[in-house]
Amino acid sequence: MKKINNICCIGAGYVGGPTMSVIASQCPEIKVTVVDINQDRIDNWNDENLDNLPIYEPGLKEIVAQARNKNLFFSTEVDKAIDEAQIIFISVNTPTKTYGKGKGQAADLKFVELCARNIAKVAKDDKIVVEKSTLPVRTASAIKSILQHTGNKVNFEILSNPEFLAEGTAIEDLLNADRVLIGGDDTPSGQEAKDTLSAVYEHWLPKERILQTNVWSSELSKLVANAFLAQRVSSINTISALCEKTDANIQEISRAIGYDSRIGSKFLNASVGFGGSCFQKDILNLVYIARSYGLTEVADYWEQVIIANDYQKSRFAEHIISSLYNTISGKKIVLYGWAFKKDTNDTRESPAIAVADALLDENAEITVYDPKVTAERIYADLDYLGTRSPEDNRRLLKVSNDPIDATKEAHAVAILTEWDEFKTYDWKSIYAQMLKPAFVFDGRRLLDNEEMASIGFNYYKIGQS
Ligand SMILES: NC(=O)C1=CN([C@@H]2O[C@H](COP(=O)(O)OP(=O)(O)OC[C@H]3O[C@@H](n4cnc5c(N)ncnc54)[C@H](O)[C@@H]3O)[C@@H](O)[C@H]2O)C=CC1
Ligand SMILES: O=C(O)[C@H]1O[C@H](OP(=O)(O)OP(=O)(O)OC[C@H]2O[C@@H](n3ccc(=O)[nH]c3=O)[C@H](O)[C@@H]2O)[C@H](O)[C@@H](O)[C@@H]1O
């Protein structure tokens, strides 16, 4: 088994940054270099002021402070880092394709392919190349083909090592992973590569939690894990709609079914819908793969998870509109939260975007407050939809830094992210300065029904009539 003292990771994003920071902090004898073509991102990773790191994750800045410029480096010198490394992680983005064959469903692998070509061009000695990005099953064979046909005749072992961290808990998830999955060839050199990577993780994780499989099982397991998780959220969200019609309470149902150890209690929180960069993208990819093998029933089954999620988002927006007497034109509605979940500044596929878009379609006047998301990001998310002009987005939607002041003369507040601070607000003062009747639409089931009603609010909690 190779002794590792140099690792490089291509892609300094939500996965590459935290994952490599943890590896560096747990393996002081290994030099870890995270490279990216985005100069701004690398500058932010190197910023003296740790509050300027490009991503926000609890515990991240402490780890970066401890390891940076000792054995953890952030750089744009991609070729140099590839050349020096024994293990190269590919952790670049794999978004849904926006063009050509598979548009809207398949994963766009152009960034991954560019990395493979770059590695082939630069490598002068044997390398272990690790797929950290989430990839369609059988991508490793494409990477292998590129490396073998364009490389300098050095040996490349390709491993699949998908990442299971969730944003907001990335550091905790990495330090205490349920499992690490390593897929590779069953050849002697493939086995050696799997053991070499395993030894890196064994610095801090028990060996039993490091699972080895063939490459294809590892690639597919990642898509399936996300599909199962998202399916649970969509399942409970469809039942939340039924609860609202029947006086059943979704929280009581989650508890009742979650006590069954076969079902388990986690991931049963009804919400305004799931967001995040991966659930939708990975399920669409799974659907595309199943369809490409002619497995129509399999594809249709998983596609329902996305359809149910879209339904939940539009159902929430429609409930706001109908509660406000079917007319929200010119009415001030405050959105609490824009991130797709608490403790992250990531807004990719956030349900807030879809809800805001639906309300703006009705000419509502929106004010958004999110403790971690910038105004620039919020406008970029809306502009990307292309529903209306950037000028109209800025005219109809304002971003506030003061959550309490934002509610002055508002008709309604909608809670779209479960930030803890929303629970600590003085809701009596908020009520006092809102127009009456004052509405709160709680898409995250954050607040207490009785308390909100006793203050005087018309309070709606998703999944409860
Ligand atoms: N965000 C998450 O929580 C998770 C993401 N994943 C997967 O990990 C992968 C990466 O996701 P994120 O880190 O969220 O993406 P990201 O978009 O935050 O970061 C990707 C980075 O790769 C860089 N990049 C692209 N092409 C490059 C190239 N040729 N050379 C150097 N750098 C290049 C981009 O500039 C960007 O900074 C995706 O496949 C995603 O599905 C997996 C688990 C969790
Ligand atoms: O591949 C990925 O990107 C990652 O996707 C998810 O992680 P993440 O999207 O960061 O966050 P989650 O905690 O899974 O939440 C996803 C969405 O579902 C929503 N959710 C989650 C749980 C729940 O009970 N209810 C619910 O509405 C969240 O609010 C959020 O919008 C998975 O949990 C990770 O294991 C995976 O690595």
UniProtKB/TrEMBL annotation:
The record's Gene Ontology biological-process terms are: glycosaminoglycan biosynthetic process; UDP-glucuronate biosynthetic process
Name the residues annotated as catalytic in the UniProt entry: 278
**Could you confirm whether the keyword Oxidoreductase appears in this record?**
yes
- Pathway membership of this protein? Nucleotide-sugar biosynthesis; UDP-alpha-D-glucuronate biosynthesis; UDP-alpha-D-glucuronate from UDP-alpha-D-glucose: step 1/1
Q: Organism source for this protein?
A: Maribacter litoralis
Keyword set for this entry?
NAD, Oxidoreductase
The family this protein is said to belong to: Belongs to the UDP-glucose/GDP-mannose dehydrogenase family.
UniProt-listed Gene3D superfamilies: Cytochrome c1, transmembrane anchor, C-terminal (1.20.5.100), NAD(P)-binding Rossmann-like Domain (3.40.50.720)
Q: Report what the protein is called.
A: UDP-glucose 6-dehydrogenase
